[in-house]
Specification:
heterotrimer; A mainly alpha; B alpha/beta; C mainly alpha; A: mainly alpha; MetI-like fold; 10 helices; 79% helix; C: mainly alpha; 2 domains; ATP binding (chain B); NitT/TauT family transport system ATP-binding protein (chain B); ABC_transporter-like_ATP-bd (chain B); transport (chain B)
């Protein structure tokens, strides 16, 4: 009942926004040359669905994000586990992490353009660098949250520390790690698009740059619309998976790092 | 001071109050008891103006309640959600005093005085979460005291503290009443507490709630946690209230068949031979 | 005393990494990784060898560093103030919340860099572009979090206000804002990083001054040490902003951590 009302209000909000934009454009209050009519953008967005070039560029961006995220997870989760279980490792590496983490990933873009001959590799490298941090921090955070009693229970049954990590620590840190993946995914998309805008190559960013230089604002905004929808979908799918998989775990890890 | 007539309230199809009539005189301390979920809180919220009842009338000091009356304070059960954790104890107590006028110094002095009254003179600079549950509830009482209301409503004020603290807080309420003379309506599900603290005990039936008993408590003053509770009148009154809460008529023996039928969700009393 | 010493001792990894970097890059004569000593010398010469009257900033620094910082701070702070005000206002109305939430969620999900090309066609190159980019990037997460925070203020806090007749203004400043502040700060934390990204990117794409612009010029001239000084500067900037923000947050939210611990 209330949920239906909420959805209805949301739909009205979106529809109202589109109508207002359309009206502002048609009456000339907003120059439709500067910001195209809402209807133009929407039909443009519909047309993009049949545009093979656009779809393949979207595919490029998404696959670099996915590869980058996987690589980042392969590095950050084991590292975070090591740091979270061995205090000496954590104390030694912590200062390095604290110094490297705030470096904005884009500051490394010119360097990456030198180091990697293909733009694609440079892009993935930057995605890995950026996504590592939320994954690492959330893994650490999750491991710190493990109930010591659960670990001691296992130890009292004679399990070694490897089994404790495998059977208790990692499963209870899993919800935090998943939250890390969700945060990392949204950052990865931002970094991927940024690299494409600056360094070229392939991807949504390149598609948008080309459309902008051809002065096709409607195409630019239509592509932006799709990218926003993709970001929204990925985020809500991951959030849904999180709450489905880890129903036992109510507390969400803080949206810590970007 | 307080007149309630034919008060009814429904949440959709569920009727919580089924026509409550109650009058409280100036300076009285009235305890309202009833089985859990009987609408005690709904009653208190309608008196306090936090809820607009679907029917009936509430008069505080002769005026119908439309919003929260000026001369009224409420002490909630959940002190951790009623005291603001980002303010110190002193700020929590003095925040409402702006409405009473006076400059910053006089407000601060009033806060200190109220904290002394509840036995927490040293807590002023602390944050609520640095205190134990019982101490936090004392702060909430101090806040109500400093506000100097004519009518103080207390909603299960000691429901979230341990037994020892509970007794201390009960005595605190008695002492506060003696020194300030304010009218207090205290809502509780604890029968002993209602008899120990109240001048009068009003018993509500299970929902839709109506008043099924209104007993005057005539116990020797000052009351004492040990002596009062073993006083024969106390024991008698407690049994009386207990029967009323379980839905039996006054003076009736426990576990009469119709009583069980009237309150099937109550735990069954020891079986008595059927007549 | 002992804890300070041991804390410093645990920083051993930083000098070790620096020395290893110095030695290995000298040995390998790596083109793209100049030794730290070279970067440091260039950093001094290029940015910080100016007259004492200019706090040792060179003209180069005044020309590139200060505009970047100014736009970053002004854009970030302005956007945050407006977004917090709007978020709290919307959050206090259930209807407005429901109406605007989907739109805000959507704008929050758009990668803000994508809009820079279109902003550029409206603002041209220069400060207006940087400001627009930063403001757009920062606004949505802060708006969303402020809205959420103000929406889910504990009902009992508000009832307490009602019972004790606390004025609307005080209710807002002393109760709703503090109650929403943990959420608001979560949004602000994200926004600091986003502001930096948008600053650098908009300087890469559409600017004739700023650290990002200077960095890209150095890259195109194959001036590797200068490029590295920009990396170091941006790293320091990120580090300082982050640390300052955390310190501020810790100060404002002391009560939050305290109250949570005892729950």
């Amino acid at each position: 009942m209330t949920n239906a009302r909420r959805t209805l209000r949301g739909v009205l909000g979106v529809a109202g926004f589109l109508l207002v934009m359309e009206a502002l454009g048609r009456t000339g209050i907003i120059d439709p040359y500067l910001i195209p009519l809402a209807s133009t953008i929407l039909t443009g967005a519909a047309r993009l669905l049949a545009n093979g070039e656009f779809l393949s560029q979207v595919g490029v961006t998404l696959s670099s994000c996915a590869i980058g995220l996987l690589l980042a997870a392969a590095v950050a989760v084991p590292l975070g586990t090591a740091m979270g279980t061995v205090p000496a490792v954590e104390r030694s590496l912590r200062p390095l992490v604290e110094f490297l983490r705030p470096i904005p990933s884009l500051a490394l873009l010119p360097l990456a353009m030198f180091l990697f001959l293909s733009g694609e590799q440079g892009k993935i490298a930057l995605i890995v660098y950026t996504s590592c941090w939320p994954l690492l921090i959330n893994t650490l955070y999750g491991l710190r949250d493990v109930d010591p009693l659960a670990k001691e229970t296992l130890r009292s049954f004679g399990f070694g520390s490897y089994d404790v990590v495998r059977l208790v620590s990692l499963p209870s840190a899993a919800p935090f790690i998943t939250t890390g993946v969700r945060i990392a995914a949204s950052v990865a998309l931002i970094v991927a698009v940024s690299v494409e805008l600056v360094a070229g190559g392939d991807g949504i960013g390149v598609f948008v740059t080309q459309a902008a230089s051809g002065n096709r604002r409607d195409v630019v905004l239509a592509a932006t619309l799709w990218t926003g929808i993709i970001g929204l979908l990925v985020n809500s799918l991951l959030a849904k998976a999180e709450s489905r998989l880890f129903r036992w775990h109510r507390a969400r890890a803080g949206e810590e790092a970007l | 001071m307080l007149e309630i007539s034919d008060l009814t309230h429904s949440y959709g199809a569920y009727q919580a109050l089924g026509g409550v009539n109650l009058t409280v005189a100036e300076g009285e301390l009235v305890c309202v008891v009833g089985p859990s979920g009987c609408g005690k809180s709904t009653l208190l919220r309608s008196i306090g103006g936090l809820l607009r009842p679907t029917g009936g009338r509430v008069l505080v000091q002769g005026r119908p309640v439309e919003k929260v009356p000026d001369d009224l304070a409420i002490v909630f059960q959940d002190y951790s959600r009623s005291l603001f954790p980002w303010m110190t104890v002193a700020d929590n107590v003095s925040l409402p005093l702006r409405r009473r006028g006076g400059d910053r110094r006089s407000r601060a002095a009033a806060a200190v005085e109220a904290l002394e009254q509840v036995g927490l003179p040293a807590a002023a600079g602390k944050y609520p979460w640095e205190l134990s549950g019982g101490m936090q509830q004392r702060v909430a009482i101090a806040r109500a005291l400093a506000y100097k209301p004519a009518l103080m409503l207390m909603d299960e004020p000691f429901g979230s503290v341990d037994a020892q603290t509970r007794e201390d807080l009960e005595d605190l309420v008695l002492q506060v009443r003696r020194s300030s003379g304010m009218t207090i309506v205290l809502i509780t599900h604890d029968i002993d507490e209602s008899v120990y603290v109240g001048d009068r005990v009003v018993v509500l039936s299970k929902s839709p709630a109506t008043v099924v008993g209104d007993l005057r408590v005539e116990l020797p003053e000052p009351r004492d946690q040990i002596a009062t509770r073993e006083h024969p009148d106390f024991v008698h009154l407690r049994a009386e209230v207990g029967r009323l809460v379980r839905g039996m008529r006054s003076g009736e023996p426990a576990a009469a068949p119709e009583a069980e039928a009237a309150s099937p969700e109550q735990e069954p009393a020891p079986a008595a031979p059927k007549a | 005393m002992k804890t300070i010493v041991s804390r410093i001792a645990w920083l051993w990894i930083l000098p070790v990494v620096l020395v290893a970097w110095e030695v290995s890059t000298r040995a390998a004569q790596a083109v793209y990784f100049p030794p730290p000593s070279v970067i440091l010398a260039r950093l001094h010469e290029l940015w910080f060898s100016g007259p004492a009257a200019h706090v040792f900033l060179t003209d180069e620094a005044a020309h590139h560093l200060l505009p970047s910082l100014g736009r970053l701070v002004v854009g970030w702070a302005g956007a945050c103030l407006v977004a917090i005000a709007a978020g709290v206002a919307l959050g206090r109305s259930a209807v407005l919340c429901d109406v605007f939430s989907p739109l805000i969620h959507f704008f929050r999900s758009v990668p803000p860099p994508l809009l820079i090309p279109i902003f550029m066609t409206m603002t041209g190159i220069g400060t207006p572009l940087q400001l627009t980019a930063i403001v757009f990037g920062v606004s949505w997460p802060v708006l969303l979090n402020s809205l959420d925070g103000a929406r889910y203020v504990d009902r009992q806090y508000l009832e307490t206000c009602e019972v004790f007749g606390i004025s609307r203004f005080r209710r807002l400043t002393r109760v709703i804002l503090p109650a929403a502040s943990p959420k608001i700060f979560a949004g602000l934390r994200i926004s600091v990083a986003l502001a930096l990204i948008m600053m650098i990117l908009s300087e890469f794409i559409g600017s004739t001054e700023g650290i990002g612009y200077r960095m890209l010029v150095a890259q195109s001239e194959l001036d590797v040490p200068t490029m590295w000084t920009a990396i170091v500067l941006l790293g320091i900037l990120g580090f300082v902003l982050n640390a300052a923000f955390l310190r501020f947050e810790r100060h404002v939210l002391t009560w939050h951590r305290g109250a949570r611990k005892t729950d």
